[in-house]
Amino acid sequence: MDAAQLQNLAENLARNRRAGLVTDLPMSLLETEADALSAQSAALDLFDDDFRGYSLVATNPAVQRSLDLGSPIFAPIASRSFHDGLEHITLPRGMLGAQCELALTIGETYPFSIDPIDRQTAAGIVVACQPAIGLLGRRSRPTGVSALMAIADFGLHVATIRGASHHHIDPSQLDRLKVTARLNGNVVARSTAGTILGHPLEAVAWLARKLASDHRQLNADDVVLTGSCLPILQVLPGQTLSVEFGTLGSVSCRFE
Fold it and tell me: Does residue 29 belong to any structural domain of this protein?
């Protein structure tokens, strides 16, 4: 994919995201992961100039199957799409559904220079945890390789709604949280946070390894959205999604 094609794709992705549109875009021109990451980065620069951390998608097998992804993907979180305590949101076109996930706040630069990047070291740098709903969607009609399309298209991130923050947590126990999702009060899914790569901290370690391979790091105050504990939930205008995360509390949002 040449530079002019990449810039054109990025401009159209950013335009569609701002307008809440889905159109035919030349995603089939993406040949490599490097192409997809370059398109994502350029589109993000056009969409926002402030970022809050990273959103992960497909960190459990059910989501990988539903999105036709063989492994997790990630993208920076644009600040304009990151909301605390939001009670309602208008759904754009191209919605794929909602993730029921954890928002983990990082307390210091990670990974360290000599320590391994694993669940144990990740536990030491998580300083807060919040329940979250992550909305996923597309800005382009599907063409080409699913994974490359998903990466370029902002990692499929649309918006994030966070609940109350908890600072006095034991990160090593997060996998034991019982998660229950309700749509308009009716239970639609149950699981535990351990479905996220076996433990939510594995999502932090996975992301840190990906960043380190590109000579980057997580920084203090970054938020890592872990990917969903549950299958992707279809949400429609007029519905309210409420998700309970055991002792961590709950988060809810009404869709319009």
Answer: no
Answer yes or no: is 2 within a domain. Answer: no
Domain with 162 in it:
50-255
Domain count within the chain: 1
CATH number where 57 lies: 3.90.850.10
Phi first, then psi, for residue 150 (nearest 5°) are: -65, -40
CA-based angle 188:194:198, to the nearest 5?
Answer: 130
Helix 3-19 with 33-47: angle, nearest 10 deg:
50
d(CA 30, CA 116): 33
Predicted local distance difference test score (pLDDT) of residue 113: 72
Residue with tokens 């307008």: 19
Asked if residue 37 belongs to a domain, the reply is no
Q: What is the pLDDT of residue 242?
A: 97
Q: CB of 42 within 8 A of CB of 6?
A: yes
Pull the structure tokens for residue 11: 């401009």
pLDDT for position 171: 93
Q: Is residue 146 in some structural domain? A: yes
Mean pLDDT by 10 residues, the chain (256 residues): 94 97 95 96 97 97 95 97 94 96 96 86 95 97 88 98 86 96 98 97 97 94 98 97 95 97
Structure tokens at 137: 């969607």
* DSSP H or E run through 5: helix 3-19
